[in-house]
Amino acid sequence: MGHGTNRVEDMASPNNGTAGETVVEIHSVCLPPKKTAFQKLKKRVGDVFFPDDPLQRFRNQTWRNRVILGLQSLFPIFTWGSQYDLKLLRSDVISGLTIASLAIPQGISYAKLANLPPIVGLYSSFVPPLIYAVLGSSRHLAVGPVSIASLVMGSMLSESVSPTQDSILYLKLAFTSTFFAGVFQASLGLLRLGFMIDFLSKATLIGFTAGAAVIVSLQQLKGLLGIVHFTGKMQIVPVMSSVFNHRSEWSWETIVMGIGFLSILLTTRHISMRKPKLFWISAASPLASVIISTLLVYLIRSKTHAISFIGHLPKGLNPPSLNMLYFSGAHLALAIKTGIITGILSLTEGIAVGRTFASLKNYQVNGNKEMMAIGFMNMAGSCTSCYVTTGSFSRSAVNYNAGAKTAVSNIVMASAVLVTLLFLMPLFYYTPNVILAAIILTAVIGLIDYQAAYKLWKVDKFDFFTCLCSFFGVLFVSVPLGLAIAVAVSVIKILLHVTRPNTSEFGNIPGTQIYQSLGRYREASRIPGFLILAIESPIYFANSTYLQDRILRWAREEENRIKENNGTTLKCIILDMTAVSAIDTSGLEAVFELRRRLEKQSLQLVLVNPVGTVMEKLHKSKIIEALGLSGLYLTVGEAVADLSSTWKANGQP
Fold first, then answer.
1. Which residues contact 635 (CB under 8 A, 6 or more apart)?
2. Where are the transmembrane segments?
3. For residues 234 and 370, what is the distance between their CA atoms, to the nearest angstrom?
């Protein structure tokens, strides 16, 4: 601004109407420091892709220290490995063995949920945890198969390929999907594109996980009721139809055993939730249930054949599966699509779980490192007969409560799984399928977070609607389409916020120089002759026309209000641009056009406090020159005071 910085004026106060000599200090609105196009681009790229400034720790370091810091950055195990001692090892061994007791039955159960051989679930609880222990930055994340990713993979692949009639092709697609999931996850981390997963909003995930939990629970009726011929579809209607259409296959022995062990598992879960110190009861109950139920089936095997069991599981380490990866053929697109969707879901869950427990212990989990760790873990897993894995909330909670100190607990868990694979597999021969169904039911029931849904209803109705779209989409359409519907609704919400931003009318709070929304503050009052508006978003091509029309409507409504109340003629419209973080050429054109149209109505347009980049573009586009000497101010208070004194000096009412 070109006008002076201090004036003494004889003016009327906008608050009480009394006249007096008041010092009005008018501050200039400055342009930001000049920068080259390259400097601007460099800063913008840094803000978008490197908000955490990962190279900061390397500055002012010797080459030797930089190499050490680089190794610690790539392999977090070097950060805490040098300080590892027997005390930490004891805690990690206890927690590792504890989560192993949960991981073994869950691994077998979740593999069946993905329509894969049970042994694949154990393979997936061996190799991935070892890789995560080296690459992961979370101390408490317990890695392995999870219910949601297993369900999504099973439902998407089985729509095109039968897991029973074409089991080899199905297995190939599962491993290939895992490979592409890993590539996608690692790429997000390497390219620092983690913000892409933010399109899965909290509301979307609440509805999706709840809907998936219901579908998973209903699918377990096959095992709980002893049904042999069951639908492979995942929607609620065909699942329930299959349950009642095959009533003749219901087995009372299976039902009794299922209800009994399900009651035990739910009771131990409830006890552990009420008294966290008794976490070990809930952690040990799945394995204990597997052992007891296996013994029961073994003892009564000659008296009844109604209870189905797992059967033979091969002993030995993970066989290599690199030769089974499917990189050409009719189903490649299906493998890629399944990999991306399961990759996004597992990545979202893993990072969320890791950050949850990191916040409890006051340390930080690096999101990009986690993406790379989980991605490389799944890529390696796909070559060693594993399917999609990530951090499990239930296992991580047990790991945390058991006193885990570092990622060594994952190594201990993997070692326990290794012993199981090498020596204990024949013991699972008579493990009944009904106990696996009960374990899955107990695990997924906690995914139905009705309290979070109620909070959405109380806080944000649109988020609640998104949650419902996700929930019912999964239940009645399909798992991937339900997720897609919810993401589409979330994107529509973003578009609405961008294309139809909020504008509000400001007034003065008496006795102060504070201007706030008339709708929020009842004591705020209008200033005669002024219409003060605040724009609460960037001005882009998508909303520039809307904002122009909305501001002109504000002006018409204000003039009509003045006529009805015989008030002071409207002379000036002030736009508070404090919240306008950016503007493009369409926005600049809209501001210029708005000034021209208001000028025809004998109304002055004044801009207040544009931020640096906006101010720079206003200056370069000559809009500042067009607005004139009194068209730009630092605060609303200064604008009102200066313009009022100018009008009074010119004899205007």
1. 27, 513, 608, 609
2. 93-113, 116-136, 141-161, 168-188, 195-215, 248-268, 280-300, 332-352, 371-391, 408-428, 434-454, 472-492
3. 31
Q: Where are the alpha helices (DSSP H) in 460-506?
A: 461-476, 479-499
Q: What is the distance between the alpha carbons of residues 145 and 125, in angstroms, rounded to a whole number? A: 7
Say how many domains are in the chain.
2
State pLDDT tens for residues 278-304: 877 887 888 889 899 999 998 887 777
* Dihedral, 33, 36, 37, 40 alpha carbons, nearest 10: -50
Indicate the range of 16-20, 122-126, 173-177 predicted with least confidence. 16-20
Spatial CA neighbour of 387 closest among 145, 132, 154, 107: 145
| DSSP 8-state secondary structure symbol assigned to residue 383 | T
Residue 20 pLDDT exceeds 60 = no
50 lies in a domain? no
> What distance in Å separates the CA atoms of residue 9 and residue 19, rounded to the nearest whole number?
10
Among 50-64, 329-343, 347-361, 548-562, the minimum mean pLDDT is found in 50-64
Where does residue 296 rank: exposed (0-12), middle (13-18), buried (19+ CB within 10 A)?
A: middle
Given 467, 491, 515, the domain boundary residue is 491
Kindly state whether residue 393 falls inside one of the protein's structural domains.
yes
The length of the chain is 653
Judged by DSSP in three states, 76 sits in coil
The rounded distance, in Å, linking the Cα atoms of 215 and 151 is 9
Among residues of the chain, what percentage have pLDDT more than 90?
40
Given pLDDT bands bounded at 50, 70 and 90, which one contains residue 23?
low
Phi and psi angles of residue 533, each rounded to the nearest 5 degrees, phi first = -120, 145
Token look-up 């139920």 returns 293
pLDDT single digits (tens) 568-605: 899 999 999 999 999 999 999 999 999 999 999 999 99
Residue 432 DSSP class: B
**Tokens matching residue 29:** 């609105």
User: Which of 465, 491, 517 delimits the end of a domain?
Assistant: 491
Where are the alpha helices (H) located in 191-278, listed in sequence order?
202-219, 221-225, 236-245, 252-274
Asked if 484 and 156 touch (Cβ cutoff 8 Å), the reply is no
- Which tens digits make up the pLDDT trace of 333-342? 999 999 999 9
CA nearest neighbour of 540 among 486, 580, 492: 580
> Contact, 283 vs 106, CB < 8 A?
no
The parent domain of residue 539 ranges over 500-648
- Angle (CA) 394-421-287 rounded to 5° is 40
The DSSP H or E segment spanning 390 is: strand 390-391
Model-wide pTM > 0.85: no
